[in-house]
Amino acid sequence: MSRYKKGDTFPLFTFDTAFQTGLSSHEVLKGKTVFWVLRYIGCTVCRYDVHKIAERYPEFTAQNAQVFVIMQSDRRHVQDNLSATDTVLPFEIITDPEQKIYDLLSVPAAASKEELAADAVRLTEKRNQAIAHGFSHGDYEGNELQLPAMFIVGENAEILYARYASDITDLPDVDELLKILAGLG
Q: 39 and 142 in contact (C-beta within 8 Å)?
């Protein structure tokens, strides 16, 4: 499968979230929709990303943007993790334990742990930030070598931005993403 790029049409698919079922990727589009593809809810740095998105979510809505995080986790793991930490998210986590959406979006796994953690300095910094915020590793789910990706999609399903990460830290952080969204108008 080839990778999606800016200008392509985002694929139509049905998905479930931790709390809803049978949603359509095209029906949920409004304003600018970010599909932030991560690994799983037990991943320390992924959980930290979820935390940072939630913490700064008003800045996304101020830019007419919404976020859906895609994870390999099943619904129960996400529900249990959020309830254990009394976390209520202002966005949805799409659950994809069979990795059908990862395959559809052509989001690959790394070939090795070394490739996944290629930027060891940046990964250590991000892991330390996550730990400082009280996050630790939870259950392992899915493909441990899964790489992340990010797509920004317009209301007409046109991909406005696409990024496939070369390692686990090779995506824009929240600050960088907000700048990208601002540049999209």
A: yes
Phi/psi at 136 (5° precision)? -135, 170
Phi and psi for 120 in degrees, rounded to 5?
-60, -35
Domains of the chain by start residue, with CATH: 14-183 (3.40.30.10)
What pLDDT band is residue 182 in, cutting at 50, 70 and 90? very high
> What is the identity of the amino acid at 43?
C
Distant-in-sequence, close-in-space partners of 176: CB < 8 Å, separation ≥ 6: none
Average pLDDT over residues 47-66: 95
Are 51 and 135 a contacting pair, CB within 8 Å? yes
Euclidean distance between CA atoms 103 and 84, whole angstroms: 30
CA–CA dist 29, 114 (Å, integer): 36
Whether pTM > 0.85 for this model: the answer is yes
- pLDDT given for residue 133 in this prediction: 77
Residue 145's nearest CA partner among 129, 165, 171 is 165
- Segment 164-172 mean pLDDT: 93
Query: For the sheet containing 23-24, what is the strand order?
Result: 23-24, 14-17, 92-95, 65-71, 32-37, 149-153, 159-164
d(CA 181, CA 96): 26
**How confident is the model at residue 122, as a pLDDT?**
83
Local structure of residue 104 (DSSP, 8 states): H
Q: How far apart are CA 3 and CA 155, in angstroms?
A: 20
